[in-house]
Amino acid sequence: MSDVLTAEPVGPSNGPLAMGMPGPQLRRVTMLLVDEQPIAQLGVSLITRDSPRPCRLLWADSGSAAIETARRERPDLVLLDPSLGDVTLEAAVRRIGAVSPGSRIILFPAHVTPSIHEEAAQLGVHGLLGKDASTNQFLSTVEAVTRGERMLEDEQGDALRRAAAKLNCAPLTPREHEIIRRAARGESNAEIASAIFLAPTTVKSYVQSALGKLEARNRVEAVFKLAELRLL
After folding, report:
1. In this predicted structure, what is the pLDDT of residue 173?
2. How many CB atoms lie within 10 A of CB 227?
3. How high is the pLDDT of residue 165?
4. Which one, of 167, 162, 193, 164, lies nearest residue 179 by Cα?
5. What are the percentages of helix, strand and coil residues in the chain, rounded to 5?
6. Which residue of 27, 54, 148, 161 could cross-link 22, Cys pair, CB 3.0 to 4.6 Å?
7. How many Cβ atoms sit within 10 Å of the Cβ of residue 126?
8. ∠ at Cα 210 (162, 164), nearest 5°?
């Protein structure tokens, strides 16, 4: 079985799978979905029908297949699952960019976590979209990236606000969250202070603030709560 699948027309249409009916001012885009799970392929094909922008949808179920398809097809967009089994995320982004420099890459994880957000920013991808996004969020992000925008900025704040709502507490600030994440790796206050250019007493104040918001008695309990919410 080939690692690369090309979307077939659905229903009475005889054209390529499209994001709804073509609008007069919207050019067709080619989107490459890179995901090992067939259910993700089906979901994206169904969601893209609700957009006014026509879309030729390609599928690849491995990193190596994605790189070859990107080289051959030069897609406008690449929707990339970061958990592929055959290549690392860094290698996939670098190699797709090398064979198809014009492709704009959107990371497509199961959940948007701060770690994924940080990696997306470091890799210089163009967007970040969780598989738990609504149809409207999916389409608006894809459309914005198609127009040349980067869609990364609000994901961390959104994740922290959602976590706070689940815990019924005030949201951590990005700095408080960063410090608790570093504490989860076993770093001391002095080590954290050195890494992020703060005084150790300032780091201690951030830790105490975070513990208070999370209603945690100590760092271990705070780390456990964040781990349960996939925020580490």
Report:
1. 81
2. 11
3. 82
4. 193
5. 50, 10, 40
6. 54
7. 21
8. 15
Q: Is-contact 222 154, C-beta < 8 A? A: no
Q: What is the pLDDT of residue 8?
A: 37
Contacts of residue 40, defined as CB under 8 A and 6 or more positions apart, other chains included, come to: 33, 81, 108, 131
CB 203 within 8 A of CB 189: yes
What class has domain 4-151?
A: alpha beta
Structural class in CATH, domain 156-228: mainly alpha
pLDDT reported for residue 155: 57
pLDDT in the model for residue 195 = 85
> What are the residue ranges in the chain where pLDDT is below 70?
1-25, 114, 153-157, 232
Contact 116, 107 (CB under 8 A): yes
Of 72, 137, 135, the residue nearest 99 (C-alpha) = 72
Q: Looking at the DSSP assignment, which residues form a beta bridge with residue 78? A: 32, 105
Residue extent(s) of CATH 1.10.10.10 domains in the chain: 156-228
Return the pLDDT at 153: 54
Every domain range in the chain assigned CATH 3.40.50.2300: 4-151
Q: Is the distance from CB of 225 to CB of 184 less than 8 angstroms?
A: no
Provide the pLDDT for residue 113: 73
Q: How much is the pLDDT for 104?
A: 96
